[in-house]
Write a structure and sequence with these properties.
Molybdenum transport system permease; transport; MetI-like fold; mainly alpha; MetI-like_sf; membrane; 11 helices; globular; about 230 residues; transmembrane
């Protein structure tokens, strides 16, 4: 069988390993922040609740390049946070893999947030009230009652966030650039391979991304199916 259309080498493995690292860290950060924000918005009532919900959902509908521009304004060398980090700690996030993690986190965050919020809203208040009557504090109620009951929805959102981070392109290109061996993730490598006319490498990268995404979508669909 002819496998000339498939290419494996350093130009394949480097973006693959970097993508797994970036997507894994971005998913972890998005999960922690997304679940915390979902819990706050489902259990607390305050004046700007709908506005905060809209801001948390915004990356889901906004073009990635616009998100990348916002990140440039915030963490760029002339941005208020980026300038402060560079002057105080000597840290530069632009054109680094850490910058790619931040970009992927922002893009993946709403997927965890919306799934976790829907799952937490489905948790019966009577279970949490019963736990409080037994003397559990709010943190214990969340960790021992709310989160376990919402676990399937949270995991589904986390998997979708990982798939989104895996294929992130626009915001990452704006913040981290496309530097082979440093910030070039799988989606950026596909872009470079197509630009260079390297069809075998592009086919290999696209095949890997497609297989992982299909696996995640099938698993997520099963997780979201009712138990009974």
């Amino acid at each position: 069988m002819d496998f000339s259309w498939f290419k494996v080498g350093p130009e394949f493995l480097q973006p693959l390993l970097l993508t797994l690292k970036v997507a894994g860290l971005a998913t972890a950060a998005a999960t922690v922040i997304g679940v915390a924000m979902a819990y706050v918005l489902t259990r607390w009532r305050f004046a700007l609740r709908d506005f905060v919900d809209a801001v948390c959902t915004l990356p889901l509908v906004m073009p990635p390049t616009v998100l990348g521009y916002y990140l440039l304004v915030i963490i760029g060398r002339r941005g208020f946070l980026g300038k402060w980090l560079q002057e105080v700690f000597g840290i530069t996030l632009m054109f680094t893999w850490q910058g790619a993690v931040i970009a992927a986190t922002v893009v993946a965050f709403p997927l965890v947030f919306k799934s976790a919020r829907a799952a937490l809203e489905g948790v019966g208040k009577q279970y949490e009230d019963a736990a409080r009557t037994l003397g559990l504090g709010e943190a214990a109620v969340f960790l021992r009652v709310s989160l376990p009951l919402a676990f399937r929805g949270v995991v589904a959102g986390t998997m979708l966030a990982f798939a989104r981070a895996l294929g992130e392109f626009g915001a990452t290109l704006m913040v981290a650039g496309n530097l082979p061996g440093r910030t070039q993730t799988l989606s950026l490598a596909v872009y470079s391979a197509v630009q260079a006319g390297d069809d075998a490498l592009a086919n290999s990268l696209v095949l890997i991304i497609s297989c992982v995404c299909v696996f995640i979508l099938v698993t997520t669909s099963r997780l979201l199916q009712p138990k009974f």
